[in-house]
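Late entry, evening session. Most of the bench is empty. Finally got around to the prediction I had been postponing all week. Sequence below, unchanged from the version circulated by S.P.
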Amino acid sequence: MPRRATEPCACGCGGFPSQYGYEYIRGHRPLPSLYERLMQDVTRSDSGCLEWSGSLTSTGYPNIRVGVPGKGGARGKGHRVSYEHNIGPIPEGLWVLHHCDNRVCVEPLHLFLGTNTDNVADMVNKGRNQKGEKHWNARLTREAAGRIWLEYDGRTGPWSWSRINAPRFGATTSQVYHIVSGSTWAPKRGQKEGDW
């Protein structure tokens, strides 16, 4: 049989833990705050970012459980937790954006509020919008898109032409259609055949 604790519970309730060497009665240990739990998995990088090393969302942002540890509950983004703890509440409809463009950064000095429009403008201004071959889901090269664009003569409908010719280019009918209709991979104004 385990020895009984001789010291009272550290929470100050006056009870005694069930075993010798235990500091708290089960369930009496104070839980760390959400921010304290966030900071347990953070390291400072050379760039000055506080980088989260825990789990990430599917889009690469810090993912932390906002409910009671071990009890399930909702999950939240770490940079939002950091902003709310250090700067203040996030108004409805605003996003927490990064000056540093490092998704795992939770350094409050690197965070600022903005709308979705601000977020998209920031992405475009910093050259992070992926277009053409750089897009994560690109199936064609710029050269292949240029060949498709130049070969379409307009004598048949764009969908029919795309359906017939897509296998030649190793692309889907939809991809070829969007190129010949000009909605994707469209050449810039004034571009000529050699510019592709």
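Two things to note before I forget:
The chain has six helices and six strands.
The mean pLDDT is 82.
Will write this up properly tomorrow.
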